[in-house]
Amino acid sequence: MTRQRPAVLIARTVFPEVVAHLQAHADVTMNETDAVYSPQELMAQLQGKDAVLTTGSERVDATLLAACPQLRMVANIAVGYNNFDMPAITAAGVLATNTPDVLTETTADFGFALILATARRLTESEHFLRAGQWNRWSLDMFAGAEVHGSTLGILGMGRIGQAIARRGAHGFGMQVIYHNRSRLDAATEADCKARYVEKDELLRTADHLILVLPYSAESHHAIGAAELACMKPTATLVNIARGGIVDDAALAQALRERRIAAAGLDVFEGEPRVHPDLLDLTNVVLTPHIASATMATRKAMAMLAADNVIAYLTEGRALTPLNPQVLQKG
Ligand code: GLV
Question: What global pTM score does this model have?
Answer without folding.
Answer: 0.96
